[in-house]
Amino acid sequence: MMRKCEEIAELLPWYPWGLSPAEAAEVVLHLFRCPQCREEFSQIQALRKAVSEALDDLPGPSPGVWEEVLLRTNGLPLGRLEMGSEFLGLSLGLSWRGKSAPLFVELSLFGERVPIFEFTGGVG
Amino acid sequence: MDDAELLFRISRGDEGSFKKFYERFAPRVFRYALTLVRDRYLAEEVVQETMVTVWKSAKNFRGHSQVSTWVFGIARNHARSLLRRAPEIAEEPEGLEERGAEPVDQGERVRKALEKLPALEREVVVLAFYQGVSYREIAEILGIPEGTVKSRMFRARKHLRELLGLESPGPGERGDDAEV
Fold this sequence. Notes:
The complex is a heterodimer of chains A (about 120) and B (about 180).
Chain A: H1 5-11, H2 21-33, H3 35-56, H4 64-72, E1 76-84, E2 88-96, E3 103-109, E4 112-119
Antiparallel strand pairs in A: 1-2, 2-3, 3-4
Helix pairs in contact in A: 2-3
Chain B: H1 3-11, H2 15-37, H3 40-57, H4 67-85, H5 88-91, H6 106-116, H7 119-130, H8 135-142, H9 146-164
């Protein structure tokens, strides 16, 4: 059964990326034969573009946020010693986590780092 | 590399993937948080808490939803928790736009209009139009029925058009403000 304009209009803000394939097909068929809904869709597109551009103008979080995140997760890197090649290597590193300075060892395999050991020494 | 692959690597402690994930999501989470808490510093706090949760809980992600749905859900919980601790923030909008001055360009006009939307409508508009989240995922993030997401979007569009002084509503617009 074909949907009414009101039902199609509810789906328009999410056409085409936020609908199931069946919904998207129904919307596109409806738009093909309904000039009123095509006009509605064009207004929604204009609104979406305006909102996106307005929010894109806003700055992102300050760089200090990443440092705070690091302090609470991996720690800020203090130093790292790398051995081997880019295909197979070993790194030894020290980081700062506020109240501790963990020493860690990672195996590097084809550019992918795999943590194999971590020693957390409390200094606080 | 897609979001799920990055998250899988983060669950194994890969710092490089965590940095990539942060660069991909932090600006999106920040702008979403800004529409909820409307204060730059609080929005940065939401980003920080969200990313720490991602690092600690990446192994719990089961892939039943999009990574972005999971991340925005975490951000929303942290934002709501901040607002519960400081409820006066929700009543004093100031984050999206400077107060007082008349908007001089289109971006400012739209941000002012967004600011004037009811919080529940603003959230749906930002998630759908800016973050590209489907109505099903928005329903999951907000914990509301899909029909409610659609009806909020209807009202939000109507209000935004009015605030921006645009054309009258089209065929699907409802006259009433009832929520489904």
